[in-house]
Amino acid sequence: MDFWVRYPDYLAYELINIFESTQDTSYLISAEAIFNSHEPDLRRIPMIRYRWGAYDRIDDTLSILLAKGLVHQDGTRGKAGIQESHFFIMSSAYALADRITQEFPILEWYKERADLVAKVAGSRG
Q1: Integer Rg of the chain from CA
Q2: What is the full per-residue pLDDT of the chain (125 aa) written as tens digits?
Q3: Structure pTM?
Q4: 104 in a domain, yes or no?
């Protein structure tokens, strides 16, 4: 999901694929909007290949949110260490996101993009 936010051209490709299989024009309209607004050139955030690339460790990515108490981490431990991680978004995170987007409406783009990426991802983790 992080990959599609960082690379809008790949998100647009996924949207086109979904459109081709469903004929739901909302996916095609979203893909066109990405290209018409030049997002692939303006909003691309490169991933460092020598680290994890598109597979950044989610606990590294979420560490700032964990430190601020906006996300809670839990999981299942096994003999070899953590087998499964669970991340819970705290109500304070929703309140902060609402306050920030009211103060800085331009940040609403991130909510809209997260909603679109979640729609594309569907039940995939």
Answers
A1: 17
A2: 777 888 888 899 999 999 999 999 999 999 999 999 887 665 566 655 555 555 666 667 788 899 999 999 888 888 887 778 788 999 999 999 999 999 999 999 888 999 999 999 988 76
A3: 0.71
A4: no
State the Cα torsion 22-23-29-30 to the nearest 10°.
10
* Structural domain count, the chain: 1
- Secondary structure letter of residue 105 according to DSSP: G
114 within domain boundaries: yes
In a domain, 98, yes or no: no
Tell the residue number behind the tokens 């499964």, with chain if given. 84
| DSSP result, 31-58 | HHHHHHTTHHHHS-----TTTTGGG--H
Inter-axis angle of helices 91-103 and 108-121, nearest 10 = 130
Host domain of residue 34: 1-55+109-125
Q: Taking Cα atoms as reference points, which of 23, 25, 43 lies closest to residue 35?
A: 43
